[in-house]
Design a protein that fits this description.
This protein is mainly alpha-helical. It is built from 3 helices and 2 strands; from the N terminus they run E-E-H-H-H. A two-stranded antiparallel sheet has the order 1-2. The longest helix has 21 residues.
């Protein structure tokens, strides 16, 4: 999967490969072994850091809680 962030407003598109779409369609989930999870989490932390730099100030000041909804288009 690829994360493409819009530098203008901080929004993001997540693009899944054909293989990822097939797995999600068939199984409804991803399973990552320990090494794959390690690489995924390392990449996710890098992405989070890069995303934060492009967020508008009002987004940077917002808070997320355990029961917060994740809204998307």
């Amino acid at each position: 999967m690829r994360f493409i962030q819009n530098a203008d407003d901080g929004s993001c598109r997540i693009i899944f490969s054909e293989q990822e779409k097939k797995i999600i369609n068939e199984k409804g989930e991803f399973t990552l072994d320990a090494m794959a999870l390690r690489h995924f989490s390392n990449n996710l932390m890098r992405i989070v850091h890069e995303f934060y730099k492009l967020f508008p100030e009002e987004v940077k000041k917002s808070q997320t809680f355990e029961d917060s909804e994740c809204e998307g288009k």
